[in-house]
Amino acid sequence: MLLGLPIGIFLVSQTTQLQPQAAITEVVPELGAGINLEAKLSLDSGGGIIPVDVYVKSPNDSANLVNAQIRFDPALINVEKISTDSGELGIQPVFTKWIESSFDNNKGAISIIGGLPGPGAKTGSPNDDQIYLGTLFLKSKAVGTGVLQVSQASQILRNSDNVNIFKSGNDLVLNLTSPVVEPLPSPSNRRAEAEDDLPLIVITSPITGANYSYFNQVGIVWSSFNTDIISQINLYVNGELFGPIAQNLEAAIGRLDWQPKNSLALHYIQPANTFEIEIIGVSKDGKVAKVLSGPFGLLGSETVSGNPPSEETFMQNQLTVTDVSRALTHYLSLPLKDASLDLNKDGAINELDLFLIRQNLLVRGMIK
Q1: Distance CA 55, CA 19 (A)
Q2: Is residue 252 packed enough to be buried (19+ CB in 10 Å), middle (13-18) or exposed (0-12)?
Q3: Among the listed ranges 22-31, 128-137, 283-292, which one has the minimum average pLDDT value?
Q4: Which of 320, 338, 316, 340 is nearest to 329 (CA)?
């Protein structure tokens, strides 16, 4: 009898050699690249939450991308969230350059995609070393035996040639004895605001994926609706707020000519850095709208190279997750050996190209 386990579960781990196993037995894992699921059972796992860590092993080859596809019975298990954030978990992920996580509680599907630039990462001996990818937070929906299964569709892509070297994954069996009863949401009397009363702002410049000169003015252009004042225009560097570059402008002006060298020290102008503009607007009755531009680059030269693809060209690129691995292999590598994934044609594969690849996969439904 197991004592002290949250919501009355106990666990069995079983290795899957690319085919589901009928019996719940321990199988010695194949000595190759694999994805492992491990439940974190502790007395502080309150609230009926079952945390499950996802790990990667690649003892023979350096990998630069992991695509973990996990299946479960949606009648028994509910995914509350997926976390890949080191600040929340106290674990520093290795695959931080490209991360995508999603789940579907109706279909019983989980997806975690993590990447890092070349030369990638390789684990130690097959029995004692693994790389953390993320944590699943689950809840029991009913009494029964719920299985988390690493799907055959999973990938571990080798950095050198972007070949899938995934060999095996384990089934994690959860024997659920105490389903969590979710309270019904309390009725709300709050009146929904009419959409045509809300302020709206659309940024048309800077252009997503484009490069601009650090030494020349960059036109920040927007159009607005039901917006009286632009209370603040903020600059973001690598997704983090850097600070305001303008305040208290009339929304109808629709343009600010920004001089980057007046806001940024020269050491911020690096190929790996991206920049974004946030515009915050306020309507006459105090409603607030916020909008963030797509990422753009700043180059330390008077002239700039490259242009983001047109919408037609962009949609013609039938990219896959394997192309993410290819881009990571050649990330910031000069001279550029594979220009097919230099989507903005600036002579390098960098953060702007990774963003454009991700957008292509999102628009085409390859990832969520």
Answers
A1: 19
A2: exposed
A3: 22-31
A4: 338
Q: What is the DSSP string of 202-249?
A: EEEESPTT-EEETTS-EEEEEEEES--EEEEEEEEETTEEEEEEEEEE
Give residue-wise pLDDT tens across range 324-345: 999 999 999 999 988 999 999 9
Angle at 346 between CA 345 and CA 349, to 5 degrees: 85
In terms of DSSP bridges, do strands 297-299 and 211-213 run parallel, antiparallel, or are they unpaired?
Answer: parallel
Ramachandran angles phi, psi of 340, nearest 5°? -65, -25
Quote the distance between the C-alpha of residue 258 and its chain's center: 30
Contact 95, 114 (CB under 8 A): yes
The confidence score (pLDDT) of residue 21 equals: 31
Cα distances from 245 to residues 124, 223, 233, in angstroms, run 48, 18, 6
Q: Read off the tokens for 132.
A: 């953390």
Q: For 190-233, what is each residue's pLDDT tens digit?
A: 444 455 578 899 999 999 999 999 999 999 999 999 999 999 99
